[in-house]
Amino acid sequence: MLYRHTVHHHTYVFDDLKTLLARATPRRSGDELAGVAAQTAEERVAAQMALADLPMAVFLNEAVIPYEQDEVTRLILDSHDRAAFAPISHLTVGDFRDFLLSETATSAVLAQLKWGLTPEMVAGVSKLMRNQDLITVAAKCQVVSRFRNTLGGRGRLHTRLQPNHPTDDPRGILASIIDGLLYGSGDAVIGINPATDSVPATVQLLHMLDQLRVRLRDIPTQTCVLSHITTTLRAIEQGAPVDLAFQSIGGTEGVNRSFGVDLALLREGYEATLALKRGTVGQQVMYFETGQGSALSANAHHELDQQTAEVRAYAVARAFDPLLVNSVVGFIGPEYLYNGKQIIRAGLEDHCCGKLLGLPMGIDVCYTNHAEADQDDMDTLLTLLATAGVTFIMGLPGADDVMLHYQSTSFHDALYARNLLGLQPAPEFQKWLTDNGLFGNNGRLLTGQSRQWLLDTAMGR
Prior knowledge:
Elements: E1 3-7, E2 10-14, H1 17-23, H2 29-34, H3 41-52, H4 58-61, H5 71-78, H6 82-85, H7 93-101, H8 107-113, H9 119-126, H10 131-140, E3 145-146, E4 150-151, E5 158-161, H11 170-182, E6 189-192, H12 199-215, E7 223-225, H13 229-237, E8 245-248, H14 253-258, H15 263-274, E9 286-290, H16 294-297, H17 306-318, E10 324-328, H18 340-356, E11 361-364, H19 375-387, E12 392-395, E13 400-401, E14 406-407, H20 411-421, H21 427-435, H22 452-458
Parallel strand pairs: 5-6, 5-12, 6-7, 8-9, 9-10, 10-11
Antiparallel strand pairs: 1-2, 3-4, 13-14
Helix pairs in contact: 5-17, 7-9, 9-17, 9-18, 10-18, 12-13, 13-15, 17-18, 18-19, 19-20
């Protein structure tokens, strides 16, 4: 089907839906690298106008990747709830944007709508939004998830404590964990990216994390070693204390194959981890990471723009009822998001689109050292996301990951956002912080001798 729009007596024609979505996307380097971006700002506006006039129902009749060729497409269409879609089925994409920004679109209404939305619908409407629109809509969406604590409640900002070490040295990892806990970090998860993805190393790290969590007066949080899901399955077979199964995923069958997974393998990992029943307040056991550009870097993007491919990954995540989903937004590099402006836009898009699809969405506010970005850009994105109700961010010593070699957010960055906006950690984790003298009853960090027990206990003194 052809789509068209005329600007100043020039008619722009878009051959199919995926071309229309790509041309309507705000400028970014990855789409230019892939050759799918609008050639001019005028063409981009023409595509956005044509997209605004597009009936929402078209997304159910024209797949951007054929149903027969891609299992993610089959998952999207087979799981679509037409009854949930019915209230907005008569709208155009532009009308849908207006609806999302209206007072009618409350948190309860959006929660009921999520299974009626496809990723392409959500990606499409986001392309018509300004940054303030993305923030406004995301802030309406409340997505709660539970394992050993409750994540995603109103007035909460959670953190993943990320104690990575270039050699998986237990002493270095332990030092980072202690540092993070003293700043109130780690309620979303204490999660390590292992330097080596081997079963013995993963099992050793899992035991160390679980023993530390129990020794420190049963911290009400969850731990995770972010190894490949096949490694996690082998660790479970060996009796390792696995709280969450982790996997990087993408929005096409091809990119998932490049990660060494498919939907069947994800299901196997989900069921094996769920069977352990290690949660106390809930049993949501999956942790997924995504990022714009992964499909293009794997040459598995099917000429989709990178943002549409990214949002399709959220349909994969949604199928497994995750505790956490994280877009590592600036991690892949400037080939895909060139500068701070593009990273900020992409982070707001990913958060809003994930929330609309019902996901407990976190953002790794990050950049690589060869991108045209700096920590001021990250401060801006962090503040905007915290205002928009982001579920969680990263907490790293000094905001510098010494193993993965990229820049993110620090423990004190999370404190800044919580203090500025009056946000708190997960309620169970907050109680642990207060009961153990790390935070005061006002939710603010305490200093002094009351914190010495944590150091002594963690170091076995």
